[in-house]
Amino acid sequence: MSASAVIAPAGCLKVGLISLGCAKNLVDSEIMAGHLHKAGMVLTPNADEADVMIVNTCSFIDAAKEESIGAILEANQRRGLHRRHHAQKLIVAGCMAQRFASELRTSMPEVDAFIGLDQLTQIAPIIEGLLARDREEEEAPENFVTPQPRFIPDFDTPRFRLTPNHTAYVKIAEGCNHPCSFCIIPQMRGRHRSRTVDSIVAEARQLVAEGVRELNLISQDTTYFGMDRWEEKAGPRALVDSTRGDSLTYLLRELQKIEGDFWIRLLYTHPAHWSDELITTIAECPKVARYVDMPLQHISDPMLEAMRRETSSQHIRDLIKRIRAGVPGIALRTTFIAGFPGETQEDFETLLQFIEETRFERLGVFRYSREDGTRAAKREGHLPSRTKESRWKRAMALQRRIALEQSAAAVGRKIRVLVEAPGLARSEADAPEVDARVFVPENLPVGQFAEVTVVAAKEYDLIAE
Ligand code: F3S
Fold first, then answer.
1. CA distance 193 to 420
2. What does the alpha-carbon distance between residue 121 and residue 58 come to, in Å, rounded to a whole number?
3. Ligand 1 within 6 A of 24 CB?
4. Beta carbons within 8 Å of 206's beta carbon, 6+ residues apart
5. CA of 115 to the centre of ligand 1 (A)
6. In the structure, what pLDDT confidence band is assigned to residue 86 with cuts at 50, 70 and 90?
7. From atom 2 of ligand 1, which residue's Cα is the shortest distance away?
8. What's the number of CA atoms in the CB half-sphere (13 Å) around residue 401?
9. Residue 462's closest CA among 453, 358, 293, 447?
10. What percent of the chain clears pLDDT 70, i.e. is strictly above it?
11. pLDDT tens, 124-174?
12. More confident residue, 262 or 49
């Protein structure tokens, strides 16, 4: 996902911002935008008139790194083309800067400064410092990144939202304590640290008062929320349990009490922490969307173990049954990795069979990407690209068939949608950016809920009246 931003009266310092990567990075971009705004600087969508360009990068997999590097190089090339913009400064922020700033300082001398997560709130003084002094030609870029970031926003952290008015991301925690062997994110985002329930509720209240109709709760692991503060240490398989301290269930019940008509959407939950208490809470809180995002990554036990997922096939299968029984009509979204090192044909067939049996309402499949610095990168048994590609294609084709059958079965149903743009809406089963769309009559008011009837299906999308 990428976003670039808005507004620009004359006379002020103008900043261009390119935001890459996930919703967590987007919230970081919003925090930078809020601090720029507070310092009297303005965002401009026009890179050619910017005094400073910020590229907020992603570094999750190779393709994301390439996109980030491409965006930095393009920003640099562009300022070279415009003589009056030779003085434009180029700042690289986000996960790639957090992880690789020392290396990038040498390989990308055209960048003026690298900043990490702990510098998000310092963006304005950093810009002022860069503009105040001329950099010598030979001088290396400034590196402000501090290792093991600790930053976590609060309800009053300045923020300028870059999402449409009716939907917002709420970052309830930052960092991750899980040891997944394929993932580099904990090395970039640090240890898990939760916000307080009061802080999140204050932010949510404000957002709802501003007209937000959908609060998307995000973090690296939403189900671990609060557990980092439990008196008795919560291990990697600890269950959501409000008797032990702050928990996702307590947070959901507090958010449910906020007056108004809005959805609370749960993204990035980890199967290891799901408890019956969480299932019951979702069932009892009508504002919590009947939708859950729970990345599973695989179902074969040898693969789950090699991925260090802290769960077993049996645990996952039981959990899905319990969630579907406890919250009837819930849409389950998950992601799998095809072609992990050592994945046998049998492991992969087990995965396909599981997808066929479970019939997830929403599903994404990634081809395994070898990331330096991860345990999985050092494993034996890396598969050729063509094997990863063909497995990915088979899994996607299977899900496409299931999705088509599910869309066709929805015809005739009455559903509630949130209108995103004239003629375009999302159902409760569709998160922003990643899921399907519902085509609706153009006259339905944007940013409001509407009740519609599905009249036809078009691949993953629905058509409603
Ligand atoms: Fe998100 Fe990419 Fe960082 S997925 S957490 S921006 S590595």
1. 32
2. 19
3. yes
4. 155
5. 15
6. low
7. 58
8. 9
9. 453
10. 96
11. 999 999 998 877 767 889 999 999 999 999 999 999 999 999 999 999 999
12. 262
Q: Does ligand 1 have an atom closer than 6 angstroms to the CB of 291?
A: no
- Does any ligand 1 atom lie closer than 6 A to the CB of residue 21? yes
Q: Ligand 1 center to residue 96 CA distance, Å?
A: 8
Please report the pLDDT score of residue 139 as a whole number: 82
How far apart CA 206 and CA 371 sit, in angstroms, is 40
Q: At 458, is the pLDDT very low, low, confident or very high (cuts 50, 70, 90)?
A: confident
Ligand 1 and 59: CB distance under 6 A? yes
How distant is the alpha carbon of residue 441 from its chain centre? 30
The rounded Å distance from CA 189 to ligand 1 centre is 9
Arithmetic mean of pLDDT, 219-248: 95
Listed in sequence order, the residues at least 6 apart from 148 whose beta carbon sits closer than 8 Å to its beta carbon are: 190, 191
Band of pLDDT at residue 1, cut at 50, 70 and 90: very low
The protein residue whose alpha carbon is closest to atom 1 in ligand 1 is 22
16: nearest Cα among 7, 27, 5, 8? 5
**Cα separation of 164 and 433, whole Å?**
12
Q: How far apart are CA 171 and CA 190, in angstroms?
A: 15
Is 295 a pocket residue for ligand 1 (Cβ < 6 Å)?
A: no
**pLDDT higher than threshold 60 for residue 251:** yes
Give the chain's radius of gyration (CA, Å).
Answer: 23
Whole-number average pLDDT of the chain: 94
Q: Is 414 exposed, middle or buried (0-12, 13-18, 19+ CB in 10 A)?
A: exposed
Of 35, 147, 61, give the one whose Cα is nearest residue 97.
Answer: 147
What DSSP line would sit under 96-112, residue for residue?
Answer: HHHHHHHHHHHH-TT--
Q: How far is the CA of 220 from the centre of ligand 1 (A)?
A: 9
The model's pLDDT over 337-393, given as tens digits with 9 standing for 90+, comes to: 999 999 999 999 999 999 999 999 999 999 999 998 899 999 999 999 999 999 999
Which residues contact residue 405 at a Cβ distance below 8 angstroms, ignoring those fewer than 6 apart?
none
User: Given ligand 1 and candidates 19, 95, 369, 433, which is best to mutate, with the most ligand atoms within 8 Å of its CB?
Assistant: 95
- Which residue of 19, 22, 26, 99 sits with most ligand 1 atoms within 8 Å of its CB, as the best mutation to test the pocket? 22
Domains in the chain, CATH or no CATH each: 14-143 (3.40.50.12160), 167-409 (3.80.30.20), 414-464 (2.40.50.140)
- The rounded Å distance from CA 24 to ligand 1 centre is 7
Whether 3 shows a pLDDT value over 50: the answer reads no
**Ligand 1 mutation target, pool 2, 24, 145, most atoms within 8 A of CB:** 24
